[in-house]
Amino acid sequence: MFIRSERLFLRPGWPEDWSDIMAQVADEAVVRNLEAVPWPYTTDHAREFAAREQDARCPHFLVTLPGADGAAVIGCIGLKPGEGAAELGYWFGRAHWGRGYATEAARAVLTMARTLGHRAIRASHFVDNPASGRVLAKLGFVPTGTMRRTFSPCRGEFVPAAEMVADLGASCDCDGMDDPANTRRAA
User: Fold this and answer.
1) pLDDT(142) > 80
2) CA-to-CA distance for 60 and 90, rounded, in angstroms?
3) Are 121 and 113 in contact (CB under 8 A)?
4) Which domains are delineated in the chain?
5) Least buried of 17, 18, 41, 143, by fewest C-beta within 10 Å?
C-alpha cells in the first residue's frame, strides 16, 4: 500500500532501507520520545525494522520526501493493533521536526484507516513531548482522561503518557482530513 499526500510519499519499508532508517532514528532526541524503540539503536534494529512484515489492517509506512535526488526517508508512521482500537505511532528525524510533516502524514494514514474500516484510532504521547500532543489535537484526537506510565528504553525509566482517541466514524473536518484534495491514495 502506498499513499501520496501534498508533499509526502508514504510507502512500505524494504530491507535495503535499513541505512536510511538508521540515519533518521538513531538519535537520542528522537528515541527518547518513543516507547517501543530500543536504545542504543543499532544496525541490527534498523535491519529488523526495514524487513518487518505488513499487517493488512494496521500497515506501517516509511515517510519519504520526494525531491530531485529521489525520495529521502524522513520518518515512519503507522498503525498497530491495540486494545479496542488500532494505535497510531510515528517518528521523524530531528531535521524534519516543526515542518508539519507529522500532521500531513498522520492525516493521510487516518484517511486510509477510515477506508480500512477503523472507527476509532488511539494514540499517546509522553507528557513532556507536547509537540506530539499538538499534532494529535490538530488531527481531531481528544484526551481520554487516562494517563499511563510507559517504559522508555532510551530514558531507562517509566514516563507518564497521555492517551488520546480519534473517532473516525464522526463527521468532522479534522483539519482538512475529509477533503479528498488533501490526501490522494495510490495502490
Assistant:
1) yes
2) 9
3) yes
4) 2-186 (3.40.630.30)
5) 143
